[in-house]
Amino acid sequence: MHYTIAYEINPWMSLKRQANRARALAQWTRLHQLLTRQLGARVRLLPPAPGVPDLVFTANAGLVSGRTLIRSNFRHPERQREEPLIERYFRRQGFRVVRLSSRCDFEGEGDALWVGRTLLFGFRFRSDAPVHEELARVLGARVLPVELADRRFYHLDTCFCPLDGEAALWFPGAFDRYGRRVIERLIAAPISVSEQDAARFVCNAIPLPDPSGGRALVVHSGLSASLRRRLARRGFRVYPLDLSEFLKAGGSAKCLVLTMGP
Amino acid sequence: MPSEIIRLSGHIIDSLILPKVLDEIMDLDGTFEIQDIRIGKRKADPSSARLRVEADSAQRLDHILKRLARLGASPVHVTDVRLVRAPKEGVFPAAFTSTTNLPTEIRFRGRWRMVRGIEMDCGIVVHPATGAAVCTPMARVRKGAWVVCGADGIKVTPLERTRAPEVFQFMGSAVSSEKPKAQLIQRLAEEMRAFRRARRKILVVAGPAVVHTGSAPYLERLIKAGFVQVLFAGNGLATHDIESALYGTSLGVQLDCGVAVKDGHDHHMRALNTIRALGGIRQAVRRGVLKRGIMHACVARRVPYVLSGSIRDDGPLPDVITDTLRAQDAMRRHLDGVGLALMIASTLHAIATGNLLPATVKTVCVDINPAVVTKLSDRGTFQGIGIVSDTESFLRELTRALHL
After folding, report:
1. Most exposed: B59, B116, B177, B261, by fewest CB within 10 Å?
2. Which fold has domain B82-156?
3. What is the CATH number of domain A21-256?
4. Contacts (Cβ under 8 Å, ≥6 apart) of A197
């Protein structure tokens, strides 16, 4: 594992507040075990590499659709070094890799999340608005761009998490009034979270089918009791996990995984 | 005002990007016009829109465009104009861009530059050293000049819709004899007063019928009262005006009683001969031979005039320019600063002047024959508005409305 805080590219990162590598490895291993053993998910691992500490946040590698990967164009040069590694891995796995026009930034599933058959696309801090047109063309789907308004929630997956066709976790304060209206129109029953919960990255959660038949949600353990109750009432079984070392880099559960298929 | 055309596409309706762009433009004190919009029929179909964004300064426009670029709206014009050298004197390159009479800008070395002296059916010559773009008629292009070709990097701005109710809005553009003329003339008089107050030039193009119908004294009053800054006419108007000043007749007809004078048919030839003997109209005024009339008023009030010749002219007067290209150039020289053009009872000179005028000049065409007015707009002077009226009654009403 090469994860560390080597630079500052979002408001959460501070070179003065270093991650404990051993603890980070333990937290990551627990997440892997939870996903594979308890929840029965099939997980493929992207091999780590030195010099790219954020490669662990695989959600930003790109967007997978069928056997195609739309590869990210990272905004920061620090993360652009991940691009060739990602591309090589996916090609070896037999994926078709689509590169977007190099003039525009796009940070994969970090900024693009499916809600049913519509892709919600967050732009401003890491991805550029014009990408939405290209995504719609490549995917042949409706792509709705929404502007992110709060620098702390620099990726869409830090403030929005679609749970199923009808529900989603979101922090409304991270969007402007247009974005809020788009989401309210798109999601029948959104669950809005408080600023404290949002700052603990509860929206950066992984929704999965639960082996018991219901719905599971893997989330950082800092979530409030009230949110936990609201989720339980909606039929979600919460799997809290301590991911505090990754929060130091501005990431949590969802940032650590990329959806490869249904 | 500086403007730029931008394009937006994708799912811009459902994502509220389009309303957001429009709100942003207004919040940043810009204005917009939706030139084209296509809305997808099914959910997955993208939509697209083309907008013209305008702001009161280039700086503000730049600020708006930067903000819109973040929302994914990109300017349509990102390339410079294509320039090709003129192959011969008076010959444009084959793919030259033919101009309209609307305000036109070209993008050269990444900057938008206004084309100077815009008129329809010309080419645009660019001086690479200064970047100046000048509208140039075909006959005047020099060999080797850089001429704009193709359609890239050219922006034509449609005329702004008038906000305040004014005579030009009131009349619309349709030509009809069935319009309330007294009202129209009243509004036109108000407009002319406003132009005089603002020290903007009023151009009058007049045909000989002004003299034949006995309305020359009204035009003379307009000139004397400072409502005419330039006069364009032909040999006919000047000759008959001088004939009436010297003999009291027009084509031999006594203007005060409408009776043909014995041996009056040669009055206009004698008038021509007198002026030719003196060397020109100005000399005739100076020598005290010409004491009244339209041309006298022009000389006395120092109102410049351009008399252009035609193939059927008698004489002509020494002041008449018989080389049509030189006459066009002489007319062009007086167009700078003209805000209103009043064309009265003239077909050929009205169309010739209309061809030279930018669309921003308000044009009023008065003729008893509706076909003349229609013809003017059919030849491209679409900004012209027509008043179908007898010349004498129009000018009489106009001078009355101006309290002259």
Report:
1. B59
2. 2.40.420
3. 3.75.10.10
4. A171, A223, A224, A227
